Amino acid sequence: MGYDCTLHVIDENRIRERFADRLINPKLSGDPFDNRADARELWQIVRKLLKNGPVKDAASAVAQLAILFSAAELPYHTERGFCLSLWPDFPPAKANPLPRRLIGDPAALFSRVVDQFPKLKGHFPVEIESNFSTGLYVPREKVPELLKWARKCDATYDTEFSTLFRGLILVLEHAVERNLGYWEATDLPLEMRTIRPVVSASGVDEWAFPHDGYAESLGLFGDSLFVTNGLGDDCSTTVIDVSKWPPTCETIPEYSLTVARSAKGKWLTVSADRKNKYLYLARVRDKNLSAKPQIILPEKQQSPNGLSTGGFVGERVVAFARYDKKFSPPLVPLIERAGKLVNSSGVKALTSKDVNRFDNVDNKGCVVTLNNGTDVIIWNGTGYT
Length: 385
Known about the structure:
The protein is of the alpha+beta class. The protein has an 8-stranded mixed β-sheet with strand order 9-10-11-12-16-15-14-13, with no helix packed on it. Strands 2-1-4-3 form a 4-stranded antiparallel β-sheet, sandwiched between helices. It starts with a strand and ends with a strand. About 5% of the residues have low confidence.
């Protein structure tokens, strides 16, 4: 559980006027927001809540839709687990408290909507309370002072926090240059985007990852760094060659949960492709990652989401599956035989003394390789070879 935070610049007049008009009058159209495939559905959901929904839900939905409306026209920046609404949760917050005088009331943006729906008064969210929420709003006239505060914070902290403020500062600089307000949210249905710096951080030579979104690392295999992105329609696994600078990369059109390599150089990805985004299968390639994979299917019908993780024992694939729709049942280990993943009966359990060496791995299900080259299946705290 966590927050996918988005930091936004907003045109307050566009929200007060055009957004309010669109919300009140369903016959209006012609804004960039309408290019979203779900735009019509989102308008309908919020209008329905305004008429019949709980007032707190209605006010929250209006605020969320306003940010989505703005994000279709103006840039924003994505952070994982960091925004000003969460500032008290960060260790540096005690030394540099956020000046509360800078925080505005988003109700100021919705006076025309409140005139139409008076029940909304006093119910617009002012801080993030949960996932799928809007957070702190800073009016445009106070953004310059917020930018000064953020720069001061950035200059205060050591290397551990050297990139913490960079995205926030870029957003605030953009807002100041264009006389825009600032607003933040979590877990809204938005693509991952990044406002990139004009120059690299001082003393650091940077390389821009070719895809917007999170580059979640799956591990380094020799000079190949694997990162994965499963957001939107552009789910992908990117293989970055870090043997030279700047790096080069190739992209596999799959979202991978796990990457593994056998002793002889075969690759395994437990991944979902773009046609079946939530069905994770074992895909095997012989050295060439761009080649069409061989899919190793379980002999028995698996859960709707397929496999959870995998690896190699020798040159044979080992994978872990759930045979239930719930998340609570334990993983079931499967091993490759005759081109299928079958029950792994017959593998030999190690002693408890041996298993104690694997404290730092996922004891519910994974494969590790010892220094002597022995592949070990770890399942529910026991090692098998």
